[in-house]
C-alpha cells in the first residue's frame, strides 16, 4: 500500500509538471497561475502545494529534468583525472544540440526559459534561480577549461574565466537564435560544426589569453 501511494504521488507530480510545461509554453510563466496548472493537470491547488512550494520550484523542476541525463558527462569534463576534458565538453555540447533539435520537450522547455520567462517583480525568485544556475554553469565550464589547459588541449596562457564566459555566451546565443528562427540554420545537421567553431575560438583567439 505504501509503495502504491508513492507511485501515485509520483504520477501526480509528473502530471503537474506536464501541465506546467504546456501552460508556461502557451501563456508564458508570469501569466500562468497555479490555478491554471491545477485545472490543466486535473488536480487541486492543494495537490500542487504538496509537491511544490511555489511557481519557481515548478520551473526549477522542469529545468532539472533536462539537465539530469547529461550530468555525468559534465562531471567527467570537470574531473582532474579525465584525460580528454575538451573532448568530453565537445561530446556534451553536441548532445545538447541534438536533443534541442530533435526532442520536442527539450525544445519547449528551453523556449520557455529563453523567450517566455518574464522577470517581473513577482518573478524575482525565478530570476535569482537563473542567476545562481548561470554562476554554477560558468564555474563548471571554467573547471573543465582549466583541466583542458593542464592537459595541453588549450594554450598554456589561456584565461579559463574569460574563455568560459565566451563559450557560454556563444552557446547561449546560438540556442536563442535557433529557438527564435529555427529555419535560419540547421542546428541538428551542423551541430558538430557549430560546436567545433566555438572550440576553435578557445584554441585560437589571442583575446582569450592572459
UniProtKB/TrEMBL annotation:
<dbReference type="InterPro" id="IPR009057">
    <property type="entry name" value="Homeodomain-like_sf"/>
</dbReference>
<dbReference type="GO" id="GO:0045892">
    <property type="term" value="P:negative regulation of DNA-templated transcription"/>
</dbReference>
<protein>
    <submittedName>
        <fullName>TetR family transcriptional regulator</fullName>
    </submittedName>
</protein>
<dbReference type="InterPro" id="IPR001647">
    <property type="entry name" value="HTH_TetR"/>
</dbReference>
<keyword id="KW-0805">Transcription regulation</keyword>
<dbReference type="InterPro" id="IPR023772">
    <property type="entry name" value="DNA-bd_HTH_TetR-type_CS"/>
</dbReference>
<dbReference type="Pfam" id="PF08361">
    <property type="entry name" value="TetR_C_2"/>
</dbReference>
<keyword id="KW-0804">Transcription</keyword>
<dbReference type="GO" id="GO:0000976">
    <property type="term" value="F:transcription cis-regulatory region binding"/>
</dbReference>
<dbReference type="InterPro" id="IPR050109">
    <property type="entry name" value="HTH-type_TetR-like_transc_reg"/>
</dbReference>
<dbReference type="InterPro" id="IPR036271">
    <property type="entry name" value="Tet_transcr_reg_TetR-rel_C_sf"/>
</dbReference>
<dbReference type="Pfam" id="PF00440">
    <property type="entry name" value="TetR_N"/>
</dbReference>
<keyword id="KW-0238">DNA-binding</keyword>
<dbReference type="InterPro" id="IPR013572">
    <property type="entry name" value="Tscrpt_reg_MAATS_C"/>
</dbReference>
<dbReference type="GO" id="GO:0003700">
    <property type="term" value="F:DNA-binding transcription factor activity"/>
</dbReference>
<keyword id="KW-0678">Repressor</keyword>
